[in-house]
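User: Study the fold:
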Amino acid sequence: MDTQTGMLALDPGSITVTTAAELARAHSNPAGTKLCQRCGDPYPCAVLRHAQQVCTLAGVTPQTAPSPIAVASKHSF
């Protein structure tokens, strides 16, 4: 929790945020159609909207967040 804003703050390098960024990139709509090119739902699809919310809470955009593979390689699971 961010004590200044009262909002939830997420670590931009967390696997949650990086996975959300990857989902947002996958569910983008570069062709500008009315349907998500990944899942076929009306654009913007629920996956994209929720992934963008996670990125916003972390203060990153889907384009600037590190990849989940890069983050996972730094951690031993």
